[in-house]
Structures are given as C-alpha cells and as structure tokens.
Amino acid sequence: MGNQNFVDYLRFLNLDIEAPTLSYLKKICKAQLNTFPFENISKLIYFQKGNFKQCKVPEHDTFIENFKKYNFGGTCYTLNSHLNIFLKQLGFISNLTKVGNQHMGIIVKLNGDKYYVDIGAAAPLFSPLLLQNKDNYDTNFRNDRIHIVNKNDGTYDYIRLTDGKKSGETWSFNPSNSNNIFDFHSLIDKSNEPGFTFMTILRCQLYQLKKRRSVSLVNNRFTIRYTNGRKSVTTLSSQTEIVEVITEEFGLTKLPIHKAIDVLNQLNIDIFSKSS
C-alpha cells in the first residue's frame, strides 16, 4: 500500500483508502469515469513506437506514469485491466471476464454477490451492476443507455441503446468465468492491427458529472451531451481546433493529439474527410 504509483492512482481519483465495500466500489467506478479518458490516442502512439511488440497493454506502473505525463487513459483492455489490478490492491476480490468476442469487463465479488464493473466502454456504467436476484439492469446518461439482461442460464446480455435504438452488437458474458490478461492476448493483438476500429479513427470521451455533461470527440466531430437532454455538435476544421477542444473542454492538457493524428495519416486515415 506504500507504493507511490498506488498512492498516485488514489490521488488521481481524489479518493482515500477505505474498506472494500459496495459503497466504496461505487465511488471508484464514478471517479474512474470522470478521471481517465476513454481514448485511442495512446493506442496509436504505442503502435507507432512498436510498444505492442513488447507488451499487450502498458505495464501497471507505465499506465500510471503515462497518465501523469500525457493524460493517457485507453480503451477497454487498458482501462479495465488496470482497474482490476487497483481493486485487488485495495482488497477487493475481482477478476477479468470476456464480454462478447471483443470486450473485457470485471467481475467483483462482495458478500456472496457478483457485480459487473466496466469503465472501458465509454458507457455510463457509473455504478457496479448486481448480477444476482435481478432479471434486468438499466443505467443511462440521458439517451445513452446500457441494458443488462439475465438470460436465466447463467449468462447475461449486454445491450447498448442510443436514442432508443440498439447501438453495436449484443455482448454476452458469464460472470462465473474468470479470466486473466493472458486470455485476452489474441484479442488485443487483433485490436492493434491496422484497419481495426480503434486504429482507423481519433477517439476521446470523458464524463464530467460535476458539469452535468459528457464530452466526446470522434475524428473531427466534437459532441457535448448534458444531463438535461441538450446536445451540441461541432465540426472541427483543423488540428489546432482539436487540440484546443481537448485542452479546454476535456481538460486533458498533456494529451499528444498531433502525434496521434500523424500516426493516422501514416496509416492513410484522414480524420477530416471521414464521416463520423
């Protein structure tokens, strides 16, 4: 518990050490989504540097150091795998679990109950979801809704809806399945290949609940969604405007946007010509 990076992780979340309870887990989930951005800027830069040849996701110390230096967060494999490490350091009983054919979630066991935790989907999962004694669970941030369905065979479906319409694939998972990071290596390898989703776009998303909003960047399209239902969308016309938005609206002053856009250019991806 005296490890400096552990102390830094707590400091990032603005939390003190508490007993591993459901109340504390709720605080952690909410703080995570308001602190670490869901982004692929770091992924693109790791790819350029060839870091994926040495490791599938950044080592835990590297993850923490790079948030300090560059405001790096990550996508599901990075964010959830490191949260799982952090939870274990705090005394929680937790493990990774495969969700669908491409996603990673976390199962936390508390007082005989199992909870689904996920801070790596750019989704409004602000609280752990109880997976026992309940058929369905819904959580939302205005028109962005996550629907967890108990299939009554030991498995659950993860369904996302935007503006009332299904968004993406249905992901199924079994909370009794316990995985570790090595079980995801083939999926991570695939996700790092040019042409895969997060190797073809510029993506950054962060919740800002104190401001009652979320902010999202997809290529050059900047969207703010407010808790009162209002939404604003701005099309950005230059790298300078993107940097200004990431700095001023997201508050991620160290995120190396120019470098990530350079990598996309090298991969023949023009974020200003793509429909987003």
Automatic annotation (TrEMBL):
Molecular functions per Gene Ontology: acetyltransferase activity
Positions in coiled-coil regions: none
Keywords tagged on the record: Transferase
Xref: InterPro entries: Arylamine_N-AcTrfase, Arylamine_NAT_domain_sf, Papain-like_cys_pep_sf
UniProt similarity note: Belongs to the arylamine N-acetyltransferase family.
Classification via PANTHER family: ARYLAMINE N-ACETYLTRANSFERASE 4-RELATED, N-HYDROXYARYLAMINE O-ACETYLTRANSFERASE
Protein's UniProt name: Arylamine N-acetyltransferase
Species: Pseudogracilibacillus auburnensis
